[in-house]
Amino acid sequence: MLTKYKYIRPLFFLSITTIFSISSHASLFGNKDCVAREESALGKDSAPKSEPIMSIHEALRLGKLKVGEIVTITRTQKFYVPGKTTGTLFTHSVSPNTRLKILGFDPEKGFTPVAIVKKDGTEAPSTDVATAGVIASKEILIVFKSEDKDEKREEKPKEEKKNDDQHPLFTKDSEAVAYAFVDSSFASIYPLGEGYKSDSKRITELNKGSFIEILGKSTEKSYATYYAIRFVQDGEVKLGDVGSYSITMIKPDDMVIDGKKLSPKEFIARYKEIEAKRLERERIAREKREAKERAELEARLGKFKEVLNAQNTEGILAREKINTMMIKGLSKYKTISLLFGNPFREPTATEYAEFKKAATDLVETGFYVVFDADSKAAPAIAQIVGKRGVGITAKATTSAEMSGGAGLVSITNPYLRMEAYANSDKKITSADSIVGRGLAFEDKLDYVLDPEDVFTTPGLNTWRDNIRSNDLPTLGVKDYYKLKRFKTGASVAEEAKPEWTYSSSPKYLEKGKSFTFDVNNVPLDNHDINNVMAYAEEMMEGASQMEHDESGQVIPGGSVFFGSSQSESKFEDLTYGTAHLLGSLGVTGATGGSGGAMEVANTGFYDAGANSIGIPLSGHSLKGERRVAKDAQTATIGASDYELRIPLLLHRRKIIVNAPGGSGTAKEIAVTLIMIGGQPDRNQQIVFLNSKFYGTPFNWLNNSGLPSEFTGRLNIIDKKDEIIPIVDKLSKNPAVKKEDLKTPKAPKARNSNTEFKSKYSSGSSLFGSSSSGSGTHSSTSSRRDYWTGSD
C-alpha cells in the first residue's frame, strides 16, 4: 500500500525523483552524510526539522560541499554542453551509478561543471563533451542526516526488483485514490513512471469513455501531468501512465448517479451500463446519418457524372480538376516528370536518342512517368512508357488513349498543369522545353538533359546577385539552385534514382503494374464534389465577368500586368507609363488587384480611360485592396486561390507584362511559360520591364536552347514607347482578332482617385495633357464591384 513508505504521504499527487548520494571527506562532513533529491520531490516539511535541506548549489556556496567532491548518480541525469550556463544545450544523459567529480563552482550560475570518474578511480578528460558537462545544481536538494542514534532516520525497507512495467510506488494491488474516464477521442497509455517519451514507447490506446482507476501522480512533464492508472484490457489488469489532457477525474465524493451516492464498484458498473446505452444510441444515429449521406452522395454522383461527361466548359473544367487529383494520387509511388521537347519543333536525332534512353532506364527502374503530351517528343516517350506513364495535354479532350498506348489526361489550366508536373519526386527537362523552364522559375526543376550542349547561359541562380549589382531592390527574388546538366540519358537517369531509406518513402512501381485514368471511376466524396464544382463554377463566373462591361460592350482580352505588391519608386514611372500608353490605345489592363506595381498599372489604365480589371484573392480583402478597387478599377473579380486567380489573369490576354517583382511574380511567369508550352497558338507577347532587373532571366530564356518560335515572343523594354512596336506586331498578325486586343474606339481619359493622381494626371511632365481629362471615376454602384462593405 502507499502508506507503507514513511516519508511519502499518500496524497493525490505523488512522484518519484532523481536521487543522488554524495561521498565526502571526513573533514568536510564529519559524522554526517547527505542524500540529494530533485526539488519537485518531497516538500521541505517532509523531513524532520533537525535535517537541514539545501541544494547542491547552496551547499557549495556555504562551503558544506567543496569542489573536488564526488557525486554518485543513482538515477539517469542530463548533461549539458561544458561551459554553457543556459542549460538549453543538452548533449546526452549519464546512466545510474556513474560517479561525477565536481570541477568548479560559480555562485552566479545554477549549473555546476562535473566530469565522469572511471571505475578505476581515474578522471576522464574534462574537455570531452562525452565525459564532461554541467548539471542543474540548483534543482538538486541535499538532505543532511545526523548519525546520532536518537535522531537517525528510519531507513526505507529495500524493495524487491519489480517488473519493467511497474512503478516503484505503484503495484496492481495499490489502492485507487481517484477514478477517471477518457474524454478525448482516445488516450495513449505509456510505461509506468515514464510518461510520454515517444510514440514508439506507447503501450496501448484506450477508447473514449473507457473507465480507469487513478493510483496517484506518476511523473511531471513541462507540458502535462501524468498519472499512474490501473485499467483492464483483454481481461487482464494492467498499469501505465496517462496524460491529464486525455481524462476527466471523478473523486469518490462525485460518484453520484440519479441523486444516489454509490460505492466505486457500484459506480463503475452503473457507469458502464449508461455508457453502453450511450454508445448504442450513437451507433444507431451514426448509421442513419451515414445511410442518408450515402443516398445523397449517390444522387449527387449521378448528376456529377453527367457534368463530367458533358462536352461543354463546365465538363472540361470538372474533368481537369479530377485529372489533377488523380496525378497527385500517384505520390505513393516514385514518379518522375519528363519534360522533353516543345510544341514548335521536332527534336534532333541525337536528342531523340538520349530522350528515349532516359525514359527507358527510368521505366525499367520502376518509376511511373508523367510527361508533356503537347511536345513534339511526346509520341516517342509514349511508346516507351506505355501504361506505366501518363501524358498531360493542355488541349480540351476526352480521349482516353494516345498513340503508343499511354494514358492521356487533359488539364487546360496551366497552374494545375504546373502542380501536376511538380508533384513528381524528380523533374527532368530538356534544354528546349518551355514547360521545363516554367518549373525552373518555381525552383521545382531537378535536372537538365542537354545532348546538344546549348544550355550554357548563366541560370536563375545568378539573378538575385545581378539585381543587387545594379543597385536595385530584389523585391523578394529568391536564391535559386544551380541546375545540374547532363549530356546523356543514361547519366541523368542514374542521377535521378533516389536512395530513400524511410519506411514512408514512395515505392517503385511493381513490374507490369499500370494505371487507367478514368474520371468516371475515381472514388469521390461530397467534399471532393464540392471542390470540383466550386472550381468549375468560379472559373466560369470569373471568365464571364470579363466578357462584357455593364453597358454590354465586349471587353477585349488585352494585357495583364504582373508585379510586386511592394511599392518601389524606381519602377513606378515605367510601369505607369507603359500601362497608360497601352490604355490610351484601347488595350484592356488586368492586374492582381493589390498594391505596389499592380496599383500603379491599374491607375495607368484607368487614367487612360481603358478597362482596368483587378483580380485579387477573395480571402485577402484588405482595406488597401478595396481602396484600389474603388479608385482605379472598372471591374473587380475575386478569386479564392492561385489556381483560379493566375489563369483568370491570363485568360484571353495577348500582352503579358512583367513589372519587377519577387517570388509571386516568378510564379506567374512560370505559369505563363507552361501555358505557352501547351497552347502555342495563343500568340501572346511577353514583356519584361527594366533590363537591369530582368536581364538575367530574359537572357536565360532567349539564349540557351529554346526555339526561335518562342524566343521571338520575348521582349524587354526600358522606355514606355517601346511597347508600341509590340502592339503593332500583334495588330498585324492575322491570327489575332482585333477585339481580343483593344477596343474599336479610343477611350476617353479620366482621372483616378489614387495617390498617383497628383504625380501622373493632368499637368505632369510625363504625359502633359495626354493623361488629363475632366471625367472622374463613377460611383461603384454603376459597375461590377467584387468588394462589399465599407472601409
Q: How is this structure best described in words?
A:
The protein is α/β, with parallel strands linked by helices and 791 residues long. The two termini are 69 Å apart. Helix 5 (349-365) runs parallel beside helix 10 (489-496). Strands 3-10-2-1-4-7-8-9 form an 8-stranded antiparallel sheet. 40% of the residues are buried. The protein is globular and about 95 Å long. The model is unreliable at 1-51, 83-88, 143-156, 158-166, 399-406 and 760-791 (pLDDT under 50). The protein has 20 helices and 35 strands.
What low-confidence regions span 5 or more consecutive residues with pLDDT below 50?
1-51, 83-88, 143-156, 158-166, 399-406, 760-791
SS class: alpha/beta
N→C terminal distance: 69 Å
Question: Which strands sit side by side, in order, in the main sheet?
Answer: 3-10-2-1-4-7-8-9
Q: Helix coverage percent of residues? A: 25-40%
The percent range for strand residues is: 15-25%
Tell me the radius of gyration. 37 Å
Mean pLDDT: 79
How many separate helices? 20
Q: What is the count of β-strands?
A: 35
Global geometry: globular
The major sheet is characterized as:
8 strands, antiparallel
Task: Please render the helix and strand layout as text.
Blueprint (H helix, E strand, L loop, with lengths): L18 E5 L2 H4 L3 E6 L14 E3 H7 L7 E4 L3 E4 L9 E5 L4 E4 L8 E7 L14 E5 L3 E6 L32 E5 L3 E5 L13 E4 L3 E10 L4 E9 L2 E8 L3 E4 L5 E2 L2 E2 L2 H45 L4 H16 L6 E5 L9 H17 L2 E5 L5 H8 L3 E5 L13 E4 L3 H9 L3 E5 L3 H8 L5 E3 L13 H7 L14 E3 L2 H8 L29 H20 L13 E4 L6 H16 L4 E3 L5 H11 L4 E3 L8 H10 L2 E2 L5 H9 L4 E4 L4 H16 L6 E5 L1 H12 L5 H4 L2 E4 L6 H8 L18 E2 L5 H4 L14 E2 L15
Parallel strand pairs: 20-21, 20-24, 21-22, 22-23, 24-25, 25-26, 27-28, 27-31, 28-29, 29-30, 31-32, 32-33, 34-35
Antiparallel strand pairs: 1-2, 1-4, 2-10, 3-10, 4-7, 5-6, 7-8, 8-9, 11-14, 11-17, 12-13, 12-16, 14-15, 15-16, 18-19
